[in-house]
Amino acid sequence: MAALINGKEVSAKVRESVRLETEEFKKRTGVTPGLAVILVGDDPASKIYVGNKKKACLEEGFNSFEHILPESTTETELLELIKKLNADPAVHGILCQLPLPKHINERAVIEAISPEKDVDAFHPQNVGRIMTGNYKFLPCTPAGIMELIHSTGISVSGKRCTVVGRSNIVGKPMAMLLLHENGTVNICHSKTADLKAECLRADILVAAVGKAKLITEDMVKEGAVVIDVGMNRNEQGKLCGDVDFENVSKKASFITPVPGGVGPMTIAMLMRNTLTAAKTAAGEIS
Ligand code: GUN
User: Fold this and answer.
1) For tag attachment on the chain, is the N or C end more exposed, with fewer CB atoms within 10 Å?
2) Is 191 considered catalytic here?
3) Residue 55: domain span
4) What is the CA(163)–ligand 1 centre distance, in A?
5) Do 46 and 160 reside in the same domain of the chain?
6) 120 in active site
7) 8-state DSSP, 99
8) Would you say residue 163 lies in a domain?
9) Angstrom distance (rounded) from CA 129 to CA 131
């Protein structure tokens, strides 16, 4: 039976260390880290995520600047707001909640955010830095997953790692972070010929697809570490991951639950990135 990787516990530790570091930073510099979060439209899930980010900021002792804009906001208006936030010295991090309404070009918005304030690490300059290993920010969800893997005490070095999903937000950067720690990495997607065979090889399996119960027990190697990034709703409307938790947990050595696994880590790492951005702006990190 797998041991549970407790995302609430690991994230609480990260959050506490950020809170203490923030206290020291404020005393030293008189600067309060500030995070601006932009939400366009009224997607219910996005509203919850944005609310959680604000709450986390206040708990860390940060300033939170919320910009809730109507669905009808034009791309020009959004780019204008980003320009203002880029120039505002009280704002150290800028996060524009995705997805954006269809009439707004997501890429243009991501590229408009100053790379120094890009706490999501979505800007091409930051993505490039991740590729070369010379980064300031790591994307929050993959960075949080690395913390969860570290919490198991298992080393990634030399392990076969399979990432299922190739999104820019999770799959691709996840593969890169596992590679940085000397994992042998394999990225699977909807055109992968034999997903089961690829997953069965994995010592560390990361599922980031968005399909409930895609990963079943017969696809998991005995003793594997299984990380579930999925946030799906089942037929009863209950939150569930990409992994058939009940059965896969009989085979895995460690497994993340949904909820309470990867989810809480994303916000914790966002807080860490915001503090890093504030320290960089204050000249403490080059
Ligand atoms: N939407 C879902 N996850 C994320 C995230 O990590 N960052 C942003 N900006 N939007 C998201």
Assistant:
1) C
2) no
3) 30-114
4) 19
5) no
6) yes
7) S
8) yes
9) 5
Q: Specify the pTM.
A: 0.97
Q: Give dist(CA 39, CA 71) in Å, integer.
A: 9
Predicted confidence (pLDDT) per residue in 232-252, tens digit:
998 898 999 999 999 999 999
Atom 1 in ligand 1: which residue has the minimum CA distance?
98
Residues 256 and 144 in one domain: yes
pLDDT in tens, 130-168: 999 999 999 999 999 999 999 999 999 999 999 999 999
Q: Are 167 and 225 part of one and the same domain? A: yes
Give, using CA atoms, the residue closest to atom 11 of ligand 1.
98
Of 97, 117, 123, 262, the residue with max ligand 1 atoms within 8 A of its CB, to mutate for a pocket test, comes to 97
Q: Is 97 a catalytic residue?
A: yes
Report the run of H or E that residue 38 belongs to, with start and end: strand 34-40
Catalytic-labelled residue, pool 117, 118, 120, 221: 120
- Tell me what the pLDDT averaged over the chain comes to: 97
In the reported structure, the alpha carbon of residue 171 is separated from the centroid of ligand 1 by a whole-number distance in angstroms of: 13
User: How many domains is the chain built from?
Assistant: 2
pLDDT at position 117: 98
Q: Do 75 and 110 contact (CB within 8 A), yes or no?
A: no
> Which residue bears the tokens 């009863």?
236
